């Protein structure tokens, strides 16, 4: 595991064994990032009490161990935080010790922004969200 300090209190840690990260933005909506070396992918899921639906997904290419890109250039960057951000203690919505930042430009990036599940807690109006590593 490699630790690189970006700012005081913010460190970038190269993911060692995790293959899935979830960033819950509301009770039924999340960003799910699978980082498996063979086939990294991203999914945006939104649902309700009756079920959920994948509203956007894309295959990714690893730029390095914490940055992933779509073919059109939209980038998803993972950052391990020194301590968790807690916007919702009960359901852990937009909370956790991992951050994902989405960057890009053009049509795909605008589509990605339009398809993001709504943020119930801690919306910063920036494409930066907090979540957790999913243990398998």
From TrEMBL:
It comes from the Bacteria. This is Uncharacterized protein.
């Amino acid at each position: 595991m490699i630790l690189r300090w970006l700012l005081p209190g913010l460190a970038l840690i190269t993911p060692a064994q995790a293959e899935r990260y979830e960033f819950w933005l509301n009770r039924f909506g999340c960003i799910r990032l699978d980082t498996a070396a063979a086939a990294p992918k991203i999914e945006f899921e939104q649902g309700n009490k009756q079920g959920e639906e994948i509203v956007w997904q894309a295959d990714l290419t690893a730029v390095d161990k914490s940055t992933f890109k779509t073919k059109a250039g939209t980038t998803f960057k993972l950052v391990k935080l020194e301590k968790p951000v807690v916007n919702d203690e009960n359901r852990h919505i937009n909370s956790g010790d991992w951050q994902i930042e989405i960057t890009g430009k053009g049509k795909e990036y605008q589509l990605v922004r339009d398809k993001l599940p709504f943020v119930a807690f801690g919306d910063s109006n920036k494409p930066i969200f907090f979540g957790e590593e999913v243990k398998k």
